[in-house]
Amino acid sequence: MNLEKFYLDVVGADGSGCIGYATQLGAGLPIKPAALLMWGAESAAAAVQRRTLRGALPRREVDVWNWDCAALAVAGKWQSCARPVRETLWESADGGVYWDNLSPRAKVTLRFGEHQIVGWGYLERLRLTVPPWQLPIHGLRWGRFVTAETSIVWIRWEHDEARSWLWVDGQRCEPRRISEQGVEWAGGRLAFHTHRQLRHGRLGETVFARWPQVERFLPARVRAYEETKWCSRATLALGERADVTGWAIHEFVCLR
Fold this sequence. Notes:
Layout: E1 3-12, E2 17-24, E3 34-39, E4 48-52, E5 59-61, E6 64-69, E7 74-80, E8 85-92, E9 95-112, E10 115-128, E11 139-146, E12 151-158, E13 163-168, E14 171-173, E15 175-178, E16 182-185, E17 188-202, H1 212-215, H2 220-223, E18 226-237, E19 244-254
């Protein structure tokens, strides 16, 4: 197995935002799944999803990542403002999970149709050479917090032997807590406020709904994974520095 998945996002100052996914399932396969999850500033409005099997992967030009996907009517530029981070999350004789945080903090301009979002965003690439259902994990917490001054990224694999990763401005830190309320470490704390739920449900009913061409490649156990994704207002406290407020995107996926 060789799956490559790009995740891209942006949140504007008013809280409107967009998450993009672009996937290469493997050499020789004719489909390239891509999707958008978009929401406006009005918190009561539901997020909108778009999907295509004729997607395109982001392309790098010096310190800018461009994502142009005509099938989704979307075009965006991620101007990197921080150095990338690379980590091998898990590896065995059969394969591994390789994570590239290509742009932990980026100035983003994203256009879809007649709409435009300008704000701070994030871009990562995940490469799996082993099926996800073979990983030692039964729950995943992931998130990012990005402002003009800083970036924080966290990952937690929940299992009998849980594993956690945290980067603050590209520096690896040891997290004390990663939860739906926030993230804490020795040097600071990120607290979430005003949670806005972007998506909730089993993947077969949300991500892969009305997408049978992709769903048929996946075992029933993967379609049954339950995901909750939020965009939350958050406040960062770092020692004696003044508190910083911005937007966090975070999620929890239950894999059992």
